[in-house]
Design goal:
Aminopeptidase, seven-stranded mixed β-sheet, 9 strands
């Protein structure tokens, strides 16, 4: 948990030339740069046009046009093996974040999930992915992790957290003979971005991709951040379909020099969701979702054409 201040069926046309022109423009808008485009076009264009597309649009021609019309964001045509993602483990061993309904520190949940995501990304070819574990007290650790991500020359920053609720919304129960605190009222993931990030549009694009994957897996996003009862923890909902929120004050989102997103994977103060968040099945679901989001972020053609 974070606290305030801390942080596209091809069209029917009369000539193949028209189809080719449209295909070129689509490929250019999505970013080109590998030989797989011809296989993809042959697979997805109308059957009577596929072979002619490959003949009329040779790779050097595509490359020449791509050079004249580069993608707006270099991440759109990145090379996975060179694309550096920093997976930031929220909080530290000294400043553990929220405490779950069964008295497990948020930092433990964050570390385990971040490790799974790193493993998944590396297995998928994003071998430059880095796990960032920071030491120290809360506020100093925030600037340490920002400095580390900036020094690493990261292309993308994702901070992993698990959610709770403000202390005044917690209830008391006995767990294992110990007074413990919970709130079953709210649950779900949430994704945060800051308008103060130097590349807010790209941050928002990645946040939308992550949230979309969470929703596609059947997860619901946390609705409480729109409610007045949240007080200073109330935030603007930027995407009401998938659960992307604006949180300008977060240090790790506004001070990083690359697109940055924070994921609250789920609520550990909710007793049922806490159990789910600790399960290998949920961790696999989330890590796979994040990996899909990174893959699409790196090459948007993935979402349209699939693996090439």
């Amino acid at each position: 948990m974070v606290s305030r201040g801390t942080l596209f069926a091809a069209p029917r046309v009369g000539s193949c030339r028209a189809v080719c022109s449209i295909a070129v423009m689509v490929l250019l808008s999505l970013g080109t740069g590998d030989a797989a485009w011809s296989r993809a076009m042959a697979r997805h264009a109308p059957k009577h046009h596929g072979p002619r597309l490959a003949a009329l649009m040779p790779e050097p021609f595509i490359r020449e046009l791509a050079a004249k019309h580069p993608p707006a964001n270099s991440a759109a045509s990145c090379t996975p093996a060179k694309f550096r993602i920093v997976l930031d483990v929220g909080h530290t061993a000294e400043s553990e974040g929220a405490i779950s309904a069964r008295n497990v520190a948020e930092f433990v949940f964050n570390l385990h999930l971040a490790q799974r995501i790193v493993e998944k990304l590396k297995a998928d070819g994003f071998t430059e992915t880095r796990l960032l574990v920071t030491e120290g007290k809360a506020k100093p650790s925030l600037f340490k992790r920002v400095a580390a991500a900036n020094d690493l020359g990261a292309n993308l920053f994702l901070s992993i957290h698990h959610d709770s609720v403000p202390d005044n919304m917690l209830e008391v129960w006995d767990y294992g003979g110990k007074k413990s605190h919970f709130s079953d009222r709210f649950s779900g993931y949430s994704v945060f971005v800051s308008r103060d990030n130097p590349d807010f549009p790209t941050s928002l694009r990645f946040a939308d991709l992550v949230a979309k994957e969470m929703k596609a897996d059947g997860l619901d996003y946390a609705k409480q951040y729109t409610l007045p009862i949240m007080g200073r923890n109330q935030h603007e909902l930027l995407n009401k379909d998938t659960g992307v929120y604006r949180y300008d004050q977060l240090v790790v989102l506004r001070k990083t020099r690359m697109p940055a997103v924070l994921l609250e994977a789920g609520s550990i103060s909710n007793r049922d969701e806490e159990v789910a968040m600790g399960s290998p099945e949920r961790q696999e679901m989330i890590s796979s979702g994040v990996t899909e989001a990174v893959r699409e972020f790196c090459d948007p053609r993935w979402a349209i054409l699939g693996p090439m």
